[in-house]
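Lecture 7 notes: from sequence to structure.

We start with a single chain of 253 residues. Read the sequence below before looking at the structure.
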Amino acid sequence: MPHFQFAGLVVLIVVVNIIAGLHSAPADPGLCVLGAWLLTLVGLVGCFAVIGRLPPVVDWRGVLIDQRNKMSLARLQLVLWSLLVISAVMTEGTINAVWSVVPNALKNPLDLNVPPEMWILLGLSGASAVAAPIVLGVKADQGTLSVNAQGQHAWRDIFYGDETGNDDQVDFSKVQQFFLTVVLVIAYGVEVAAIMLHPSAPPGVSGATAMLYFPALDKGLVALMGVSQVAYIGYKAVPHSKTDADALGGGGA
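Now the structure, written as tokens:
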């Protein structure tokens, strides 16, 4: 019955946001809009869990599991940003659209003022999710890739190494990347929540009616995330296991 569960969650998300829009107003939305967004976020997590339980993985965390049959940090990053952005778009777009039907209300309810830095962040997360399997594929060809053959998925896989030579050790580049991502997602989520509590005209738009929109992102934080992503993929590409060729060549330093 996964398809019924998925469809039910999607319908529930839409209904919750429509009701929130009908019972609130741009001038004084109260906690109604924020509550709708949080319920949307929970509903999306449920949708992702339903997708994850589809065969052959059959694990509610399936969207985080990669070709090694392990939980992936690159996938976690993409999922976190996707949850934040998709939930905010659904809530803001739906409620703006509901608000726009009243007289003298919004003229462009779907103009959410998404900052270009947000697309850069999503692009970085997407690029990491694409680059990681390529790097792991090379290690698989070299015979050094660590694979989970037992089918028991653990959260610690997010922080451990990817090769047979370091799969029992914490990879600090992953720890750094994890906390940077979590801090950025939470900080930006708080900014989105603040706008939902107190809608206003988007910056630089004069004479506009108060509406829901995406706040600006600091370029320095985006640059920091970009450098961290490059370091993360670079460290992943470096060999961390001895191969037969290394052994014959003396192993090196």
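The chain has a mean pLDDT of 88. Keep this in mind for problem set 3.
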